[in-house]
Amino acid sequence: MSHHIVEVKNLSHIYPDGTAALFDVSFRITHGESVAIIGANGAGKSTLLLHLNGCLSATSGEIRIGDTRLTAGTLPDIRRTVGMVFQDPDDQLFMPTVFEDVAFGPCNLGLSGMDVEQRVSDALERVGAAHLREKPPYHLSGGEKKRVAIATVLSMMPDILVMDEPTSGLDPFARRQLIGLMRDFQHTRIITSHDLDMVYEVCDRTIILKRGMVAADGSTGDLFENGELLKECQLERPLSLQGCPECAARIRSCGTAKC
Known about the structure:
By secondary structure, the chain is α/β, with parallel strands linked by helices. The chain has one domain: 3-Layer(aba) Sandwich (Rossmann fold). Helix content is about 35%, strand content about 25%. The chain contains ten helices and ten strands. It has helices at about 45-50, 75-80, 100-110, 115-125, 140-155, 170-185, 195-200, 220-225, 225-230, 245-255; strands at about 5-15, 20-30, 35-40, 60-65, 70, 80-85, 160-165, 190, 205-210, 215-220. It has a six-stranded mixed sheet, sandwiched between helices. A hairpin with a 2-residue loop joins strand 9 and strand 10. Helix 3 packs across helix 4 and helix 4 packs across helix 5. The chain is globular.
């Protein structure tokens, strides 16, 4: 299953305006891992994710998905393997109805008829959005858009799921539903998020970025116990680990410290 492996080697990125966002980033993610990439605002998290399916091109370094190096020529195959959920769902929703948005990817894979219908139905059901299938995306709430955007990726049945701030804009029920979905996904997951309680639940491994560089890479539990490291990277421990029984109980029951 080498096609489930993500390998980033000495990746650097400088934007056209001269802003340096990533510096010599390297890591390897193997089949079935659930990995969080966290850091303060401006640490380079979203920039890094946008390289994983070719939305951005590296200034230097390389990315391999399995045995395939990401290049302009291999980009179509890479994008069939790596499903990307963007931070802003409006970047993914552009069709007249939810059904057509979720069907867009399978149709472009050459599927038709009942195969497309099945893919769309399964994906919408998994994110709790089956009742939205005939609605125009611009009539949806922010949380509904996020769920539909995730469904557009799930309908492609990717081997690697990449998600940028997946729980932002979700209510507690939808957040808990999404956490269950991410746990059930059998292949490789790469997630960026400021929701560190979700990270603690879903990701066994965490990579911390600081000013575009890898500051730490290891067990999520171990890194979240390192208060000095977190403070240095402008992060805080998840609320569930901060010693407040009431907050921890609320997070377990409804997905947030504020019910």
